[in-house]
Amino acid sequence: MIRPRAPLRLLTRTPLTEYARRGKMRLDKNERLVPDAALARDVLRAVPLRVLTEYPDYGPFRAFLARRLRCRPDNLLLTAGSDGAIKLAFEAYVDRGDEVVLPSPSFAMFGVYAALAGARVRAVPFADDLSFPTEKVLAAIGRRTKLVPIATPNNPTGTEIDDGDLDRIVRRAARFGALVLVDEAYYYFTRRTHRALALRHDNVVLTRTFSKALGLAGLRIGFACGRPGVIKNMRKCQPIFEVNGLALRFAEYVLRHEPRAWAYAAQVEEGKAYLGRALGALGFPVRRAAGNFILVEAGSGAAGLARRLADRGVTVGSGYTHPSLRQKLKVTVGPVAVMRRFVSIFRRVVGSR
């Protein structure tokens, strides 16, 4: 058998189990829970067949996106979700033996891409109250640091970083020639962005996805935003045509109808308030997170509760190693009508213990 590169021999990945989610109420990956039927109907009706036979032209959509973000097209890179943008940042800037300063726990692929690069991860645990560990991150950044990935809000803790603290991290990273990656996957649920920071500093890249509030997780489209030099280096690592033409059409449509995304985010806030009351009444306190999910205090039986919910057709997040998350479930939130169905099943599951 041909041996792979050393980093791959040392890396263990959890196999995908998407088949286990098929047909279930999927509350474990923070997807949009209610599809926009009009979106699919309108876009597919207008798409010419040549979109399927021609290689995609990124220019028009990148120019359109630049106008919306008040930047230039050369500040943007279209990618396969924000995950694709994150991967390119690691490939462009992290070498074997470099250090990645990583607040932990966070998006799992941060650690995977660091391992594939042969980098050393300096994990900085979130505080017991799940607040962002700013001072420890600052202390961890040094001469071997090449990348500091920060998801805000963070998944799974639901933590946001303070603007001033992020600025301090960016400035310290710049002293050592390190890139700060700011992932804003949950932008529509917070209305906070650090786009200006990415356009102002040459050691910052911002990533976003169309997978959450915009509801295009299945089409895999996102983007990176930063200074032209940063974007140019990331583009060097990218396949020629990574984002497909159909995804471009859908992405432009959802941005032209952006109030629908804001309306969905408002429905998620209503869903959070409802779950806080309903689950609290059942003896399961809820920690509201910044994003489209909540954390449910389930006690020492959290893992067993997650399994029983799965048996009833509901998948939720569980099995976290951080001390403050071990007894919690992470539940994706949607409109109240969807959450009522979840609470009904949850009530039956906990009543059957």
Short synopsis of the structure:
By secondary structure, this protein is an alpha/beta fold. 43% of the residues lie in helices and 16% in strands.
Order of helices and strands: HEHHHEHEHEHEHEHHEEHHHEEHEEH
> What proportion strand?
15-25%
Q: What is the helix fraction of residues, given as a range?
A: 40-55%
- Main beta sheet: 7 strands, mixed
Number of strands: 12
Which stretches are poorly predicted, pLDDT < 50 over at least 5 residues? none
The protein's oligomeric status is single chain
Strands of the widest sheet, in order across it, are: 2-8-7-6-5-3-4
Query: What structural class is derived from the secondary structure elements?
Result: alpha/beta
The Rg value, from CA coordinates, equals: 21 Å
- Shape estimate: globular
- Tell me the span between the first and last alpha carbons: 49 Å
Average pLDDT rating = 95
How would you sum up this structure, described in words?
This protein is an alpha/beta fold. The chain has 15 helices and twelve strands. The strands form three sheets. Strands 2-8-7-6-5-3-4 form a seven-stranded mixed β-sheet, with helices on both faces. A three-stranded antiparallel β-sheet has the order 9-10-12. It has a two-stranded parallel ribbon with strand order 1-11. α8 links the parallel β5 and β6. α5 packs parallel to α6, α5 packs across α11 and α13 packs parallel to α15.
